[in-house]
Amino acid sequence: MGKPRVLIADDESVIRMDLREMLTEAGYEVAAEAGSGDEALAAARAHRPDIAVVDIKMPGMDGIDAARAMIEEGICPVVLLTAYGQPELLARAKEAGVFGYVTKPFEERDLLPAIEIARSRYDEVTGLKQQVGDLQQAIETRKLVERAKGILMETQGLTEKQAFRRIQQESMNRRKSMREIAEAVILAHDVAGSKP
Q1: Are 53 and 15 in contact, with CB atoms under 8 Å apart?
Q2: CATH number listed for the domain at residues 5-106
Q3: Chain Cα centroid distance, residue 115
Q4: What pLDDT, on a 0 to 100 scale, did the predictor assign at position 52?
Q5: In which residue ranges of the chain is CATH 3.40.50.2300 found?
Q6: pLDDT at 192 over 70
Q7: Where are the alpha helices (DSSP H) in the chain?
Q8: Where in the chain is the domain with CATH 1.10.10.10?
Q9: Residue range 84-142, pLDDT digits in tens
Q10: Among 36, 47, 107, 122, which lies 20 to 30 A Cα-Cα from 131?
């Protein structure tokens, strides 16, 4: 699989250098570095890292807004670094959906577990989103097939079983999904119904 690729974003070059050294020694590949939230987001979009370690307070777009965009775009999980413990920052970080939060000064024993847990949770969330998407597709397909069956039953006098079998047979004959056949039946019915 290769080394996990990480994006480092902090406006202090010394912190970035420390992070680079720590993460490289721990077996990570530093895919990109950034000194502002805007640069971090651009680097994340360009390099598609496995994880981003982002400071909260940076010039331009702050780390929380950059993290929110990375997560919403499905780029990678984000662990935030901060020297500030203000409750409003923590609340914004939670609302943005970050997967970890480490306070400065940090040590390897603080950061590395936070990164690994963030990656694991992100994979779980991504898997769940995929399952939800698959279920939504299945439900939508079923609704379309039910509607197409109803049309065939009404227009061709078929039983429910015969209508389902017709859709199934057309699917096999045309090497198309049942959803595509159902959509075609519905479209043909709608077009025929709209003619004067």
Answers
A1: no
A2: 3.40.50.2300
A3: 18
A4: 95
A5: 5-106
A6: yes
A7: 13-25, 37-47, 63-72, 87-96, 108-156, 160-174, 178-194
A8: 131-194
A9: 777 787 888 888 888 888 888 777 788 888 888 888 888 888 888 888 888 999 899 99
A10: 47
